[in-house]
Amino acid sequence: MILMGISLPSVSQVSISGNIIDNKTNFPVAGATVTLNSSKLFTITDDNGHFVFKSAHNNNELLIISTIGYEQCEVNASEVLKSNTIRLVQKQIALKDVVVLANGGDQFKPISKTDIAMRGVNNSQEVLRIIPGIVIGQHQGGGKAEQIFLRGFDADHGTDFRMDVDGMPINMVSHGHGQGFADSHFIIPETIESVDFKKGPFTASKGDFATTGFVDFNTKDALNDNVVKLEGGMFNTYRALGMFDLLNKKKKEQQQSWYVASEYRYADSYFDNPQHFKRFNLFTKYNGRLSPHTFLTASVTTFWSKWNASGQIPDRAVNKGLIGFYGAIDAYEGGLTYRTNANIKLTTSYDNGDVLKNQLYYSNYHFDLHTNFTFFLKDTTNGDEIRQQEARNLFGYNGSYHHVGYISNLKFNTEAGLNIRVDKTINSALTHTMDRYITLDRIKLGDISQLDIAPYLSETLTLSNHLTINAGIRFDQFYHIYNNKLAGDTTLPGVGLYKANAHTLSPKLNFYYHIDDKLQFYLTTGKGFHSNDTRAVVLENGMKILPAAYAADFGTVFKPAKNLLINAAVWYIGLQQEFVYSGDGGDVSFNGKTRRVGFDFSGRYQPVRSLYFDADVNYAHGRAVEAAKGENYIPLAPVWTSTGGVTYTNKSGINGSLRYRYTGDRPGNEDYSLTAAGYFITDAVINYRKSKYEIGLVINNIFNTRWKETQFDTNTRLRNEPLPVNEICFTPGTPFAAKLSLSIYF
Question: What is the pTM of this model?
Answer without folding.
Answer: 0.91
